[in-house]
């Protein structure tokens, strides 16, 4: 997590064929803030609850539309976080 920056995120997203939109960035930054606060990569459910508290209203469907090849795997890679072992 320490070596992460925007350039890294953009490069990783490009390798995964993901065009980063404003929604993508909101998710990535929320994941990083959650990780920094709890020292834990959030599950989808945890992330959605956390985003709701931050007034970001997305559904699990939205996450899978934005990251069609696997939300947890791809979002974790882009955000520079370890993949949560409790998610498939």
Number of DSSP helical runs: 5
What share of the residues lie within helices?
55-70%
Could you state the order of secondary-structure elements as H and E? HHHHH
Overall SS class: mainly alpha
Radius of gyration: 12 Å
Beta percentage is under 5%
Mean pLDDT: 92
Q: Give the overall form.
A: globular
Summed up, what is this model?
The chain is mostly helical and 88 residues long. Helix content is 60%, strand content 0%.
What keyword list fits this structure?
88 residues; mainly alpha; 60% helix; 0% strand
Tell me what you see in this structure:
With 88 residues, this protein is mostly helical. α1 packs antiparallel against α5 and α2 packs across α5. The model has no long low-confidence stretch (mean pLDDT 92).
Write the SSE topology.
Layout: H1 6-15, H2 22-38, H3 44-53, H4 60-66, H5 71-79
């Amino acid at each position: 997590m320490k070596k992460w920056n925007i350039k890294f995120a953009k490069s990783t997203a490009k390798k995964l064929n993901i065009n980063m939109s404003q929604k993508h960035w909101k998710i990535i930054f929320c994941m990083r803030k959650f990780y920094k606060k709890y020292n834990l990569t959030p599950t989808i459910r945890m992330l959605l609850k956390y985003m709701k508290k931050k007034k970001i209203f997305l559904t699990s469907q939205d996450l899978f539309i934005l990251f069609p090849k696997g939300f947890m795997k791809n979002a974790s890679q882009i955000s520079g976080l370890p993949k949560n072992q409790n998610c498939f």
